[in-house]
C-alpha cells in the first residue's frame, strides 16, 4: 500500500500541498478529484519523486520513498502516466514502450502481451512515430509504457484529459483489468467526476492544496463533491 502522510510541498514561497494524507491500497482504484490548480499533479510529483516534499512522508509497502530519485521509485514498482502523456514524438511506438525497460532486470526486458490485448491499436502501430498518434492513442501508449515496467502501483495524472469518450471507456476498462488481474494499486487524479465515480473504489477530493472530503466511491455525496469541483 502507498501511504502519504501530512505532505507539504512548496514551489518557492507558494504552497501547493497542505498537510495531505492519503492511502492507495493494493487491488483498489483510488481517485483524487479536484479542479484545475488545486495540487493534484503536485501530489503525484511528490509520489513519483519529480518534486521533493517540504515535510511529510511517502511510504510504499514499508519502504520510505522520500529522497529517492524517480528511477529508484520506478524500481520499487511505481509506474507513472504523466499529464500530457509525455510520449517521445520521434521514437516509434515500439521504442516508446521499450523505454519502460530501464528499471527492469535483463530477463524481464520484454513487452507483456496483455498490453496489446488491452490496446490492439498499439500493435497495429508499432512502427509509427509516437508524435503521429492521436491524443487517445498516445494515452494508451503512455499506459502501456508504464505497464512495461511491471508496476505494483500505477499512478495516472488526468488520463481522460482531451480524450474522446470511446477511448475514455477503453482506458477505464484497462484500469479495471489491471486492478483485477494483477491486484496492483491504482492512484489516479482527475477532474472528471463521473469517470471517477464509475471506476474508483475510494475517492478523495482536493481543494486548494488540501483533502477536503473522502469516502467510498459508492457513497460519494454527489452535491458536495460537485460543490468542491465547481466553486
Ligand atoms: N513548477 C511550478 N512552479 C510554481 N508554481 C507551480 C508549479 N507547478 C504548479 N504550480 C502551482 O501549484 C498549484 C498546484 O498546481 P498543480 O499542477 O499541482 O495542480 P493540479 O490540480 O494538478 O492542476 P491541473 O489540473 O491544472 O494540472 C497551482 O497554483 C500551480 O499554479
TrEMBL record:
Keyword Membrane set for record: no
Domain of life where this protein originates: Bacteria
InterPro entries: AAA+_ATPase, ABC_transporter-like_ATP-bd, ABC_transptr_urea_ATP-bd_UrtE, BCAA_Transport_ATP-bd_LivF, P-loop_NTPase
ABC transporter domain sequence ranges: 2-231
Alphabetical GO biological process terms: L-amino acid transport
A single GO molecular function term of this UniProt record: ATP binding
Keyword annotations: Amino-acid transport, ATP-binding, Nucleotide-binding, Transport
SMART domains tied to this protein: AAA
PROSITE patterns given in the database record: ABC_TRANSPORTER_2
Family to which this protein belongs: Belongs to the ABC transporter superfamily.
Xref: PANTHER family: HIGH-AFFINITY BRANCHED-CHAIN AMINO ACID TRANSPORT ATP-BINDING PROTEIN (PTHR43820:SF5), HIGH-AFFINITY BRANCHED-CHAIN AMINO ACID TRANSPORT ATP-BINDING PROTEIN LIVF (PTHR43820)
Protein name per UniProt: Urea transport system ATP-binding protein
Lineage, highest ranks first: Bacteria, Pseudomonadati, Pseudomonadota, Alphaproteobacteria, Hyphomicrobiales
Amino acid at each position: 500500500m502507498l501511504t502519504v502522510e501530512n505532505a507539504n510541498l512548496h514551489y518557492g514561497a507558494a504552497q501547493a500541498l497542505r498537510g495531505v494524507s492519503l492511502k492507495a491500497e493494493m487491488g483498489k482504484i483510488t481517485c483524487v478529484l479536484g479542479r484545475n490548480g488545486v495540487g493534484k499533479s503536485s501530489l503525484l510529483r511528490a509520489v513519483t519523486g519529480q518534486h521533493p516534499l517540504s515535510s511529510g512522508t511517502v511510504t510504499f509497502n514499508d519502504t520510505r520513498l522520500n529522497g529517492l530519485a524517480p528511477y529508484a521509485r520506478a524500481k520499487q514498482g511505481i509506474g507513472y502516466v504523466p499529464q500530457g502523456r509525455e510520449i517521445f514524438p520521434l521514437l516509434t511506438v515500439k521504442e516508446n514502450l521499450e523505454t519502460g525497460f530501464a528499471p527492469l532486470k535483463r530477463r524481464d526486458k520484454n513487452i507483456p502481451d496483455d498490453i496489446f490485448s488491452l490496446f490492439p491499436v498499439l500493435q497495429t502501430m508499432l512502427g509509427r512515430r509516437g508524435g503521429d498518434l492521436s491524443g487517445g492513442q498516445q494515452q494508451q501508449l503512455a499506459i502501456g509504457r508504464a505497464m512495461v515496467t511491471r508496476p505494483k502501483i500505477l499512478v495516472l495524472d488526468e488520463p481522460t484529459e482531451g480524450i474522446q469518450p470511446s477511448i475514455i471507456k477503453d482506458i477505464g476498462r484497462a484500469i479495471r483489468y489491471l486492478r483485477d488481474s494483477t491486484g496492483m494499486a491504482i492512484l489516479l487524479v482527475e477532474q472528471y467526476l463521473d469517470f471517477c465515480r464509475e471506476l474508483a473504489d475510494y475517492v478523495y477530493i482536493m481543494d486548494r492544496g488540501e483533502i477536503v472530503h473522502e469516502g467510498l466511491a459508492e457513497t460519494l455525496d454527489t452535491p458536495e463533491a460537485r460543490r468542491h469541483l465547481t466553486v
